[in-house]
Amino acid sequence: MNGYAFHRKKLSHHRYSSTLVSEIVAQNKSSIMKTAKLTVLLCFVTLLSFGSVSTKEKQALKDLYNATNGALWRTTWDLDAPVQNWYGVVVKDDKVIELNLEFNNLRGQLPESIGDLVYLKHLNLFRNKITGGIPSTVKNLKSLVTLNVAFNMLNTPLPNEIGDLESLQYLKLFMNTIQGEIPSSIGQLTNLNTLELYNNQLTGELPSTIGNLVNLREMLLSSNKFSGKLPATIANAKDLKVISVFDNNFFGTLPNSICSLTQLEELVLSDNAFYGTLPNGMASLTNLKVLLIGNNDFKGELVQLKEQLPSLKQFDFVNMNNQGTIVTLDTEDDD
Predict the structure, then answer these.
(1) Cα 35 versus chain centre, distance
(2) How many CB atoms lie within 10 A of CB 317?
(3) What topology is assigned to 53-316 in CATH?
(4) 49-87 pLDDT per residue, tens
């Protein structure tokens, strides 16, 4: 091969190599661009998926964190992380629907902005050290099904606005030191299934509007300072299974209407100031398993009643302050 031919072959090889390099560079640039676009797209999707909880809801959660000493919670929050990564927070369709912070060492008062969590269905703050009371802004939580702030240090009266929780089924505020009376607005909670207010400092009479709670299954009001009579309207809750009002200051005779609660399984009236005779219709409570009526001032003879309640497993009528009181089935008209 002469020198000219060799030179042309070398030049051709050089041009081929240059073309190949250019193609490789072009392909790399294209690949980099595709990767960059994909990265941007993924970031955008991430923002859509994790960053769209409303500013108002996020701020309400931050307010709760700050108001209850969030830095010292048992499991705290990284406020820079997406909201749905925060412990106890459940997000669905970009809305905060659940907040479960039980046993988490919350200390302080609930902020007013808790009412901005308008999509909340379940609020569980059981067994913490929350003080103060339930903010009136709770009225905004129209979707709330469960409100559990039991076993805390709440001490102020229940707000009248609690009656605005139209979807509420479970109200659990036991083991606090809540004062004042039950607001009559409680009768607006027509979907309520469970009412647990025992071990507080609640006073006054039960409002007659309690009879509007037609879906009520359990009413636990023991160890408070309630007074007055049991309202006859309580019998409107035909599916009631548990009534527990022991250790209060209730007085008077039992309403005859209580005998229409044929689904009743537990009736606990001990340690009050009830008196007179039990309603004649008590024998119709054939599902009754627990009947505790001791330390009152009921009169009469008990044997017949016990025989007529075949499901009865726990029965106490002893008056420790008066060496035993006997009960009868005689009728007593409601006042």
Answers:
(1) 47
(2) 20
(3) 3.80.10
(4) 445 899 999 999 999 999 999 999 999 999 999 999 999
